[in-house]
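Structure (tokenized):
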């Protein structure tokens, strides 16, 4: 379906508005939730992988991979409205899952963490405090794994899979996340995609051009 067809179809139009409302509510709630998490004390533990490697400051590579992956994902998914809506529903579920996990397992940041401050956000809002307790599970890794599971072509799955792997290694080496945060992220992404019915096989077959 094209965007015109989605807007012309009553059912799909309702789905579009419901999806937009859902992700807006989730993001609004998420930002408020993160402030509460940041103010809450948690537990920390010795990570054996951290003891072997790092910390290494990979802030710029991490955000280049993240934003590059997001731009590519939007460019690809925007061509097929139903695919983009499926991705948005999945991300909404992923947000809710992260909130539940962070609330259930409050963690203090690894003692050797190099804070991951978004360089683009800092450019426009200097002095903003970086988050350190949004740990379990890795959002950066899970969103890229999510995209690898949603896109239709094998080539794109490989690209997003590679980006997710680079991200997982980078946030671990920077000690931004405990290793378990990163290991759980792909499973969480798979579960969110499954719940949302966002796998390519769950959606209508693409039209031939």
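Design, position by position:
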């Amino acid at each position: 379906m094209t965007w015109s067809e989605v807007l012309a179809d009553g059912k799909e139009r309702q789905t579009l508005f419901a999806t937009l409302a859902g992700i807006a509510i989730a993001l609004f709630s998420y930002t408020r939730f993160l402030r509460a998490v940041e103010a809450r004390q948690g537990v920390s533990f010795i990570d054996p992988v951290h003891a072997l490697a790092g910390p290494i400051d990979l802030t710029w590579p991490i955000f280049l991979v993240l934003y590059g992956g997001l731009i590519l994902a939007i460019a690809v998914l925007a061509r097929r409205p139903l695919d983009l809506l499926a991705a948005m529903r999945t991300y909404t579920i992923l947000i809710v899952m992260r909130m539940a996990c962070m609330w259930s397992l409050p963690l203090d940041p690894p003692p050797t963490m190099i804070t991951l401050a978004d360089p683009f956000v800092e450019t426009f809002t200097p002095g903003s405090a970086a988050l350190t307790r949004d740990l379990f599970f890795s959002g950066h890794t899970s969103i890229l794994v999510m995209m690898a599971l949603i896109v239709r072509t094998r080539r794109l799955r490989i690209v997003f899979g590679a980006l997710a792997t680079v991200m997982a290694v980078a946030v671990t080496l920077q000690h931004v996340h405990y290793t378990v945060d990163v290991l759980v992220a792909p499973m969480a992404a798979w579960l969110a995609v499954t719940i949302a019915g966002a796998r390519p096989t769950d959606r209508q077959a693409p039209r031939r051009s």
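Reviewer-requested clarification: The longest helix spans residues 10-39. Confidence is low (pLDDT under 50) at residues 205-209.
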